[in-house]
Each structure stands twice: as structure tokens, then as C-alpha cells.
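From the shared-data thread, chain only:
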Amino acid sequence: MRDAVAQLNPLYRLVLAYAKAADRPRYGLLFALDARFADIIRSTTEILIGQMRLTWWRDILTKSVADRPAGEPLVETVNRLEEQGQGLAPLLSLLDGWEGMLDDFPWDDRQFDSYADARGPGFFQFALADGQPLSAEQVEQARAWALWDFARHCSDAAMRQSAFDRCAAIVRSLPPADFDRSGRPLSILCKLMHHDVKQGQLTADLYSPASAARIIWHGMTGR
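Structure, as C-alpha cells:
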């Protein structure tokens, strides 16, 4: 698992540093699995192969610990967290969102909504420690974040703009994200998203000194 965290992009390694110590294994698994699913989509040239690789993970998340294969560090972390009482249902929702990415572009409203409804709340729900359902406002923050992240990584200009426009429409109806201390990494991501919407464009480099300063300040103070 340590190797998987070390391979995360610099943004997520920095965000992970502001998770509470007790929450870091959960966030580390979440970030690493999300990155693994992204790699599957990015490297897929044949839809059937991509579906098979994602189905392997669906089987992992629905099997009992005893029936899961050994030797995969992320699977071992899934086992450990599940044995500690962590529910895995949100990860299946996260996986649903990524599986929707196998659909050909351009997307219609239904496809954007299905993606945002699955990946965003799945990601946010797994991140939070208390297991309580997300509030309506948190669900909307999660949906907006999923669209923002899509826009940040999509190479298709029209799809990228469409995703960002949809994200902005949601964000403009929301107050700043409100999470307890266990949700600090989520509020950092939302802070970056809200900043982009306020500026009216995606920040070109989230690893710049200015972006890093926003992350560090919010990570330390929550403001």
C-alpha cells in the first residue's frame, strides 16, 4: 500500500497529508483505487478489455475476504479496512462512475448525470469516517467535484468544457463545502474546485506555489 500511495500524483499526496492519522489508510486506499480505475480507463483501447478489468475489481469488492486473491497490496488493504468495519458499497458506486467512462464521447445529459451521481458520492461517502449518509448539500459538492475532476483530465476539448460548465452550474448554487475534521481532504478538493469556478476557468497547474499555498492554509486551518 505504501508503494501505491507513493505513486499518487503530487496533489493527492499533499492532500493526504492533511487527513487525520486514523483516517489516512482509508483515504490512501480511496485515492489509490481511484487512480487505478483511472489508469484502466486511460489505457483501454478495446471496451471489452476495459470492462473485464473493471469487473475483476467489482468481483474483489463483492467477494468475502477469504475468496479474494492474495498478493495485491490494494486488495490486502481492502481486506484490512473491511475487517475493521469499513463498508465497501461506496467503492462500488465509485467503480460504476468509472465504468461509465467507457462510453463513447460526446455524452448526453443522462451520461453526465450517471457518471456524476455514481463517482462523486461514492468517493465522498467512502472518505468520511462516520458512515452517515451524505447530506443533500454534500451530495451536490460530490457531484460537482466529479465533473470538475473529469474536466481537469479530459483530453476532448468539447467534453472538458461541457463538464466544467455543469460543475460550475452546481457550485454557483452552493455555499463553501462544510465537512468535519475527518473530511478535511474533501474540503481541500472542494476549495480548489470552487476557486476554479470563481475564476471561470480550470487552473492550469495545481502544483504551482499559489495552489500549494491554498492547500496548505486550508489543510491547517479549515479556512
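DSSP finds eleven helices and no strands in the chain.
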